[in-house]
């Protein structure tokens, strides 16, 4: 006699509540009930208001700075562990602190490794994330990591644009692998930007490897922070004869003067996912939801089905 698989339970960290509601809707269940108590000094305590004993629990929350977002995820994982949940999956549409994935100079931390260890210690038995800043971060975990690619939501959008003379570009050497994957899917040429930084978030010089004259260019990156690289790359490409320049960036961190830079740039549009909520609206920024992607993968994980198709560019 076979028993029906009990429903999974989905819970949202406050920073990703809007996305979590969309994921739950795509999944076909209601979000679980969590309340958060806050002390006057800013300390907070999340509480599950329903039993999770023996259940598979998905906790959805991006860990972009400030540090409260990461702390909330850790507290939620710990609460689920202490409430005897059977499987606890940390769903991080954006895995924060990922730019610190190695020692690039003496006496600095490897924050991505530290975050991985904290998530596991707090109680995560599995991690689902999307477009990590560096693929090797998966190796920082001892638990299973499902690393999804936003290309599954971006490629249909690009194909619908039906752009002639399309060329895919990477804004730096590190993103060349991602750019080549997109170009293969779109059967297009590839251009690489070579940049030199004076310091973090400050570009001193940029060169172009490849020809963009008469092309419609799509820049591809995993995140957009200050938008300095993207807007500089767009300027260089228009100067070199590109017809139009668009950018696809999975995670819209958009700090500092990013919104102003994008509005005043030569970018036709910036296409992002809702892994991080936008701080403000912009006519040039188009949001494509990743909710269906995460819902499909979470359901497949719960039902012990293959999700390998979601790993492909």
UniProtKB/TrEMBL annotation:
Protein keywords: ATP-binding, Kinase, Magnesium, Metal-binding, Nucleotide biosynthesis, Nucleotide-binding, Transferase
Superkingdom of source: Bacteria
InterPro entries documented for this protein: PRib_PP_synth_CS (IPR000842), Pribosyltran_N (IPR029099), PRTase-like (IPR029057), PRTase_dom (IPR000836), Rib-P_diPkinase (IPR005946)
Segments forming a coiled coil: none
EC number: 2.7.6.1
Domain Ribose-phosphate pyrophosphokinase N-terminal: 9-123
Enzyme class: transferase
Single annotated GO MF: ribose phosphate diphosphokinase activity
Matches recorded under Gene3D superfamilies: 3.40.50.2020
Protein name as catalogued: ribose-phosphate diphosphokinase
Organism (species): Mesonia sediminis
Keyword hit for Electron transport: no
Alphabetized NCBIfam families for the sequence: PRK01259.1, ribP_PPkin
SUPFAM superfamilies per UniProt: PRTase-like
